[in-house]
Amino acid sequence: MSTSLHNIDQQIAEIGQRAKAASREMAKASTRQKNHALGALAELIKGQRSALQSANQADVERARAAGCDAAFIDRLTLSDQAIDSMTEGVQQVAALFDPIGEIDAMRPQPSGISVGKMRVPLGVIGIIYESRPNVTIDAATLCIKAGNATILRGGSEAIESNRLLAGLIQQALSAAALPAQAVQLIPTTDRQAVSAMITLPQYIDVIVPRGGKSLIERIAKESRVPVIKHLDGICHVYLDDDADIEKAVRIADNAKTQRYGTCNTMETLLISQAIAHQVLPPLVKIYLDKGVELRVCDQTRKTLSALGLTHPLIKDATAEDWDAEYLAPILAVKSVADIDEAMTHIDLHGSRHTDAIVTENHSKAMRFLREVDSASVLINASTRFADGFEFGLGAEIGISNDKIHARGPVGLEGLTTYKWVVLGSGQIRT
Amino acid sequence: MSTSLHNIDQQIAEIGQRAKAASREMAKASTRQKNHALGALAELIKGQRSALQSANQADVERARAAGCDAAFIDRLTLSDQAIDSMTEGVQQVAALFDPIGEIDAMRPQPSGISVGKMRVPLGVIGIIYESRPNVTIDAATLCIKAGNATILRGGSEAIESNRLLAGLIQQALSAAALPAQAVQLIPTTDRQAVSAMITLPQYIDVIVPRGGKSLIERIAKESRVPVIKHLDGICHVYLDDDADIEKAVRIADNAKTQRYGTCNTMETLLISQAIAHQVLPPLVKIYLDKGVELRVCDQTRKTLSALGLTHPLIKDATAEDWDAEYLAPILAVKSVADIDEAMTHIDLHGSRHTDAIVTENHSKAMRFLREVDSASVLINASTRFADGFEFGLGAEIGISNDKIHARGPVGLEGLTTYKWVVLGSGQIRT
Questions:
Q1: What residues of chain B lie within 8 A of the CB of A410, using their CB?
Q2: What is the reported pLDDT for B3?
Q3: Shared-domain flag, residues A216 and A354
Q4: Both A206 and A250 in a single domain?
Q5: Are B137 and B193 found together in one domain?
Q6: Do residues B224 and B338 both lie within one domain?
Q7: How far is it, in rounded angstroms, from Cα B53 to Cα B46?
């Protein structure tokens, strides 16, 4: 190992050690103290708006000079609106119920002891993210509220903005008599820092990667620390033959077109053959009006031809389309015989993220709910609802496609664990 | 890779594939069906007692010929009593509440959708264990009840017993119209089978290793599949200066001497210096009468000398003793100034498994409960209570020292996960 790699590993290990020490203090912090820090942070962000924007301006200019595209620059920029919404986010987290210390139920046992589970912080959370500087604030505030210490590893493009924001967070922690080291930003932009973070299970309890698929894939593959992540959102809506046609059209429209680039956007529409002739004409019109390209199966093509519907944006699907996450105005459309074929398709091609059925038939709705093995399963609602805010979590650190620990939208509770607590009065085991 | 390794990898992958397919059927199984299978299994074990004991006899003879020690032979032997307790275990699991399909609370959200969490099976559980053939039944029945498929990898010494038991389980599954492939025993005793299992995250959702520390360490290090495990049980009892002396003596006795070889046995006793002269005379007498060797710190040695207590079994502790898991009649004893020194010692030397305080002071009891970062924290009760049955879980698949997913004693719930379920009536996101 070169001296430089060794130095970075050493530096990250020291950051990890400080985080672990700070996490012990954070675990003891009162709700009042944590909310005090969050309130102070909201005020600091408001007060430092111009300093923040000039640091951000430096990042944006560097990104422009490096030839980054408009979408990238947009994500990087801390506009007035972006700063306002960051501040509001902090206040929302301050207003959330504090889960730490809650004991679910103390149940007396035959031995005479009472046993319950107390919710406690996970410890140290590592956040690895890319260009959006607002993640620095969003992630750190959730981790603070859940009583954790945090190590932030932002993208090199946002380093000036992130440094300033991390400084404000540390000031706010100190103002509440909490350890400033409870939130640390990795100062180096060297990629080796990520490799070092994901191999420190002794200091970091969980890693949350946020960003592009290749970053997340690499982290999931190499991490020795548990990872909360999702890779793909290949989401389905199944329009059952017992669907209300009006609801079917509205939901299939919204699930695809409300936003194209999100992980809970529908990528494949499954239509029961029995209602295809009823739903296709209004739906195809909506999609074509919005410029959505359709990749259709043979049977759907036949139905469309019989209905006299052809258009350059209607193309024939290939086998790859059933496994595609377009994140774009493109939709795969497949005709199925019934709910069984729909569920088999979802099982084979879905990413276990979010899937919905539209039906008025109660038994089929309940079968879909029970049998589809996805993190979020919806009846008569748009897949776009699969989101921490819409699910009532109050905030979201990310979404998990995995089954272990946290699944689907992850809020405060996903940043906690529990311990067993026992109240005795001198009992011994016999 | 040699042909033989390749063949084993291929064989395990096929077992994994069949398990995954069976897990879909198991997830849909009704409580009645699962209980039917368990009832049938209990009857089959009773009915096949002599066949079982002759298969087991073959294992025992092989182990004897191989020179295995008496403790090993004891674990391997299916005595009448062992078979009775296996049958009772199956009936107990059948009687447990079925967690699958339970929805915690459907909460209406501002958008009009209602959102809840449904408890669902994890999918496929891999159990890797050593000589005890009863694990075949204990683990499989818990996995069946939780709606999972199971891949069992028992020790080569118990292979004849395990084959017969696995056959009975498959018969019982078929009798309940459940897929026999929902419980598969790995037929080969080749060690490569373990390596193959722990690198199949596409088919196996979680691995539960049960056995010696070196086996578990290896699996934890190399597994690409999440592991539910514990390595060490370095458990503490802290006798506070506000302890009831009688309770302190009773608990410190029981936590060490009720069983020496279990993971929740106390390994280090921490005594507040203020009460050392009161608790040491009765405790030392108990320990010495039971043949427990004491490894004492300097301060404890001074107190003992002042009390005129010396004995060949009382030895001076070395630095290693504070990190030792003896699993034997040996106890480290340390004097501490107060609860803070006790908690600092536990933080530095404990294994985050199980720790207890004995005190009548409410504030100190609550501090210990909140601040000690262990899977089980007890007030005025023996560490020996940290156990699935004593905690009211009805059964136990293992104990976890980790913080992710399951912590402490793991029962049925640790073999499940949840999915988000949404009931809508046509809602779309705006």
A1: none
A2: 53
A3: no
A4: no
A5: yes
A6: no
A7: 11
Q: How many domains does chain B have?
A: 2
Residues A71 and A139 in one domain: yes
Same domain, yes or no: B76 and B217: yes
Nearest Cα residue to B397 out of B181, B119, B129: B129
Q: Which of residues 98-127 of B touch A (CB under 8 A)?
A: 101, 107, 109, 111, 113, 115, 118, 120, 122-123
**Whether A187 and A261 share a structural domain:** no
Asked if A381 and B226 come within 8 Å (Cβ–Cβ), the reply is no
Tell me the pLDDT tens digit for each residue of B103-129.
998 999 999 999 999 999 999 999 999
Residue-wise pLDDT tens digits, B231-277? 789 999 999 999 999 999 999 999 999 999 999 999 999 999 999 99
Within a domain: B397: no
Question: Considering only CA atoms, which of A278, A267, A275 is closest in space to residue A240?
Answer: A275
Express each pLDDT in B310-352 by its tens digit. 999 999 999 999 999 999 999 999 999 999 999 999 999 999 9
Whether B313 and B375 share a structural domain: yes
Which residues from A are below 8 Å from B384, CB to CB? 428-429
Is residue B222 one of the residues assigned to a domain? Answer: yes
Q: Is B188 exposed, middle or buried (0-12, 13-18, 19+ CB in 10 A)?
A: middle
Compute how many other C-beta atoms are within 10 angstroms of the C-beta atom of residue A194.
21
Candidates A113, A348, A357, partner chain B, best to mutate (most B CBs within 10 A): A113
Q: Is the ipTM of this complex over 0.95?
A: no
Cβ atoms of A389 and A89 within 8 Å: the answer is no
* Contact between residue B374 and residue B360 where contact means Cβ atoms under 8 Å apart: no
CB atoms within 10 A of CB B53: 18
At A212 the pLDDT is 83
CATH number at residue A45: 3.40.605.10
A381 contact B CB<8A: yes
Residue B400 resides in a domain: no
User: Is the Cβ pair A407, B420 closer than 8 Å?
Assistant: yes
Residue B401 lies in a domain: no
Of A123, A377, A429, the CB nearest to B385: A429
* Range of the structural domain that residue A128 is part of: 3-228+409-422
The gap between the terminal CA atoms of chain B, to the nearest Å, is 55
Instruction: Give residue B110's pLDDT.
Output: 96
Facing residue for A419 by CB, picked from B244, B251, B374: B374
- Residues (pLDDT < 70) of chain A are 1-3
